[in-house]
Amino acid sequence: MCRVVDLQQAVLAKNDASAGLLRSHLAARGTTVVNLLSSPGSGKTALLERELVLARERSVPVAALTADLATENDAARLARSGVPVKQVLTDGLCHLEAAMLAGHLDGWLPLGTRLLFVENVGNLVCPASYDLGETLRVVLASVTEGEDKPLKYPTAFGLAHLVVVTKTDIAEAVEFDEDAFRANVEQVNPGVEIVLTSARRGEGGGVLLDRALAAAQGAPPHTPVMARHPQHGHAHQDAHAHPHPGVADALAPAPTRS
Q1: What's the order of all strands across the beta sheet hosting 193-196?
Q2: DSSP 3-state of 88
Q3: pLDDT in tens, 199-229
Q4: d(Cα 159, Cα 227) in Å, to the nearest integer?
Q5: Cα–Cα distance between 154 and 111 in angstroms, integer?
Q6: What's the mean pLDDT when you consider all of the chain?
Q7: What share of the chain is helix, strand, coil (3-state, %, to 5)?
Q8: Contact indicator for 117, 49 with CB cutoff of 8 Å
Q9: Which distant-in-sequence residues (6+ apart) come within 8 Å of 191 by Cβ?
Q10: Is the pTM of this model over 0.85?
Q11: Could you tell me which CATH class the domain 2-227 is placed in?
């Protein structure tokens, strides 16, 4: 058991180092990363497509990278916005890692990109423990998922800089209890902003883009209490150690052992 814990900590420490280097590299290019996490079917792609369209209308240089285990369906949907989009197929891996992301950005990310939206794999467990070099981490939950979602996935919600509720147009039909949801979010992440959205009706349109631009301009994001913990809230149950290429190699150098 101790070896498993040690391996988990080593994998996460290596990822954190890669994430820090990637964050510095992208900051030097003037690019801010927004990491979007949610369960499958939350409406994450629909919301992101709408925000990308708004960004293009406002002449904000943005790009999007979307990750899935299979198919390029989400990339095709996001590409309708007219902004640069890249699909990453993880071949069964349930999350992105910083070095993996860096490898996919290398040679693809357009110069001058102000915001890079990363649509992580649909999963609230594995991705929650992996820093991708983001400045803004956004966790989404639809009204159909239950008010206790934040309590079931405390690491994901506890490390969020922003929480977004989707599909509010059907909130009444599914008897979504907004007060209960807010109370549960507050329990794991006191003070985090919660935004209500509906891609169908346009509710909350542009708020995600506005918050991302504010972060890009240097506005400090919310500081989760969990992020102050020495382990940065990492509560991953599996090591998921996989080798991935880094951008420009130097971003995530692998130590050699004799």
Answers
A1: 85-89, 62-68, 115-119, 32-37, 136-142, 162-166, 193-196
A2: strand
A3: 999 999 999 999 999 999 999 999 999 987 6
A4: 6
A5: 36
A6: 89
A7: 40, 15, 45
A8: no
A9: 222
A10: yes
A11: alpha beta
Q: Let me know the angle formed at the C-alpha of 116 by 144 and 55, rounded to the nearest 5 degrees.
A: 75
When pLDDT is averaged across residues 1-24 and rounded to a whole number, the result is 83
Mapped onto helix, strand or coil, the DSSP state of residue 89 is: strand
pLDDT tens digits, 67-76: 999 999 999 9
Phi, psi (deg, nearest 5) at residue 58: -90, 5
What contacts 24+ positions apart, CB below 8 Å, involve 73-77? 74/45, 74/119, 77/45, 77/46, 77/49
* DSSP one-letter string for 145-214: G-TTHHHHSHHHHHT-SEEEEE-GGGTTTTT--HHHHHHHHHHHSTT-EEEE-BTTTTBTTTHHHHHHHH
Boundaries of every domain in the chain = 2-227
Both structure tokens of 171: 């909130």
Structure tokens at 7: 């391996």
